[in-house]
Amino acid sequence: MSEPVVNQFIADSQIKSFDLKHRKTIAFNMSKYDAAVARGKQQYSNLAMARRQASLKKYRSIEHLENALKDFEQNFTRRGGKVLWAQDADEANRLILDVLQKHQVKKLVKSKSMVTEELQLGHFLELHGIESVETDLGEYIVQISGDKPYHIVTPVMHRSAEDIAVIFHEKFGLPLESTPQEITAFVRKTLREKFAGAQAGITGANFLVSSSGSVALTENEGNGVLSAAMPPLHIVVAGIEKVIENPADLHLFWPLLATFGTGQNITAYNSLFSGPRQKGEVDGPTDMVVILLDNGRTNLLAQLPQRRALSCIRCGACLNACPVYHNIGGHTYGSVYSGPIGAVITPHLKSMKAYKHLSYATSLCGKCTEVCPVNINIHQLLLENRKQAVLQKLSPPVENLGMTAWKKVMLNRKWMNLAPPGIKNFFLKKLFSSSWGKRRNLPPIAAKNFGQLWKSRQKNG
Hints:
Strand order of the largest sheet: 1-10-7-4-2-3
Largest sheet: 6 strands, parallel
Oligomer: single chain
Structural class: alpha/beta
CATH architecture of the largest domain: 3-Layer(aba) Sandwich
CATH superfamily of the largest domain: NagB/RpiA/CoA transferase-like
């Protein structure tokens, strides 16, 4: 299983790294992001303190995850909501389908949610005759174009305005010269009709507040609020790691998520849902169900220190900072979660054997750690993944044998000097040229090593 995955990663990386159009688009979009984040950070008088507090609060919830989830369930069900637990993607999909069929749902609207991408929920519902429409603008573009999200926060970061205009021209006949404003107006009108006719709404959750039994949702377009409040049934799909302790903690997490995610002081719409419509309330769903998804998260929770990655609030800052991500893009990772944080968590969520190569797709420059709003030491966790892969002996036998031989030679000066430079260069080229890549030449070993040069200098000096 692992060989096809890593081979595909290498092949896709080589193509994408030399795609000049892709690099130009990403460079432009990243420059806009960097400028916005620099402005957003100005709202803080002590950003380091805010990050430290958020880090401690989030990790505290992870350390007490079992109790926090029990508290959430108890407080949410007290207000008439229902909580269902899913061990994996298949179970989550079956639970969602059961709920939808019970309510005779044939049409639903869905807000942006990375966890539903794990489930491939849209495709699953389509197979069972249920229409599911993405209502986030970026996700809607992904859906109608048959694409996949490129980025945790910005699904179509890899598309230029001209690319998107072509998509809407081909799908809906809009003029090729349509502006982003005109396309947005068209999508708004189209989706309003979908909201009005939807029998259910599905959303993710940015946070699950355990002490109040609330689902916190943050977004910029209003589609999340409409998906949750307009249809009679609201289904929330959330990873079990989303828990925080108190509603008051949101004064830390919401601004940090906005600042590091998009450069805003605060996201446009921030909502708390604590169950279905209560007596005396005039809007909201009559039924509300929360699906709590494991899908490999307890595997990660069992790993020290990698469990620290469960504190991630999905701001995407580490993706935007990573030089590797800038070059190979989001799709290349072959995972829902890309970039540095994806490289840490994917081997634990899916398979260490199949995805251990992602932990080597890094320069280890530490920029990901530097920009993380909850102070996850991401580059160190990548090294921990590498160590774990070695301890589990997941490398091919040939690689293990080669590294053992290399170590023995490198630790013995006599063995290192045994072969002349020409033979050394020949074997290095044979052994490492494929790993080094077709576009680079291996640096040749010098005709004289340092010891020989030093003796020559002493003799002539």
